[in-house]
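Record format v2
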Amino acid sequence: MVIEKKQCIELINSHEEFLILSHEHPDGDTLGCAFALCEILRSMGKKRAFLCADEISADFSYMTDGFENDEVKDPFIVAVDVADARLLGSIAADYADRVDLGIDHHASNTLFAKDTYVEDRAAACEIIFELAKDMGYKSNEYFRNCIYTGISTDTGCFRYQNTSALTFRIAAELMEQGIDSKTINKLMFETKTKSFLELERLSRETLEYHFGDRCAIITITQDMYEKSGADEHQVYPITALPRQIEGVVVGAVMKEKPDGSYSISVRTDGDIDASEVCARLGGGGHKGAAGCHPECGCDEAKELLLASIKKSLDGLVK
Amino acid sequence: MVIEKKQCIELINSHEEFLILSHEHPDGDTLGCAFALCEILRSMGKKRAFLCADEISADFSYMTDGFENDEVKDPFIVAVDVADARLLGSIAADYADRVDLGIDHHASNTLFAKDTYVEDRAAACEIIFELAKDMGYKSNEYFRNCIYTGISTDTGCFRYQNTSALTFRIAAELMEQGIDSKTINKLMFETKTKSFLELERLSRETLEYHFGDRCAIITITQDMYEKSGADEHQVYPITALPRQIEGVVVGAVMKEKPDGSYSISVRTDGDIDASEVCARLGGGGHKGAAGCHPECGCDEAKELLLASIKKSLDGLVK
């Protein structure tokens, strides 16, 4: 059931033991929500534990250091920033049907939890921040750092179009009350690992242009992961690159999977619908960013991709 | 003379013809200030002209398109975001002694204008925004886009440490009233030219590590400018790269000048003082970013640089 903020607060107030779940491959927003919520609960004298299918990157140690799960027996289970039970990853089998409360910012939330409080905001951390205020929680810097992490990472540090006036207002409040934005920005936006740099360098050598330079494609092979020491979780910043090139309206990154097939990330510039390009290859997504996995080798996948892009480009001209 | 906001407003109110000066190699903040101020003046029925030593990048055409200088005879001359008369560039000879009013955010302003209104803020556009409010100016989207351009570019889109709660509050107001952040962010932060990409690729091949990987150096040669089609004004984003590498505390970019000498940009991570590193080579700057131009060839310049960095690193260990 979809619930309002007031009911969400009542649910939190009326329970004493909590298990907070983040989505798999946890990012700054799901972790920021989870640890900020844990901090609210701690301050209320409630017991709380955290669970996530995957390991947390050491970059987030300023949130996780010193955090220890309380022992919880029959906890009230809350999923934060989880749009679909499948995104719980390997713990979905155990928890998908047992989530009591979902707190999320994805309009596409599948409402898999018993109750879901969802608002279409730039980051789920914006929602946690406002919940906390309405609950009368008096924040400390740790809490504010968690919230800032979620907001800054989900907005590309206030650069993406999801950034709203409310996002800026919350950032102003956090900044006024004190956050360690220096450390967080450095970790989230300024630091590049050597393995990432090498993967980027190798992949950049494959950059190719099509359709009068309106389309750019980068290919990443398993061999490059091996040579660079990077893995596919580090590819994300590269997926944006082809579309950032002057004049390019469709950018794609083709990523070889261990079985030799290629998954494809497509980014576009508004006029071309990326989800349409990917839908023709069995995938989907949003207008500006979508993906597909045509389950074939590089040459065939690229041929399919180019044919689909051509269709969309032709549609544009008409 | 240093003046307050009220006097600054009085000076603007009491004149009818204005010449607005930007600093050489104009960036988003000096241009944002200039065109925002011109728009305020236009709305007041005053005449205004703009002058800058160097050409304005086409990226800023959303500010300059349709702008035409009024004819001004004996204008009141205002320099915006100009910390030192020398930064007027090639027009300094004609104007350095004739500036009536400086509006600036550099605490280091040399007070070369007859009157200077200076506040230590993230961007000079923050000051223009607040001036406009106090003047009772009713903003339009063009004005707000100018202000947003200055604020977002001078803060690296809200990522640098100069970003304050006030910066976020102004951004929130701009966003609420309406700005084209999509277009501006795309132009300022998302678009890479092919020539830049090629320069970046070529320069990345020169990346070398020193002192147990705590120092990283990239070298850019004249040959690379020629091969890539980029010029030295496009180097800026590359200067940040070496220090962004995990574990690196001092990053440097050595840039060959047409005469074969090398100018050096040094970026550090707080603990090492970049201005100290550069001062030993006759340069200067800030703690986190500084520069020098030792006027010698690559090998010698690098030797001098490494010796200076070693001294600072040794000082760190003690």
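The CA atoms of residues 69 and 294 of chain A lie 42 Å apart.
Chain A touches chain B through 33 residues (CB under 8 Å).
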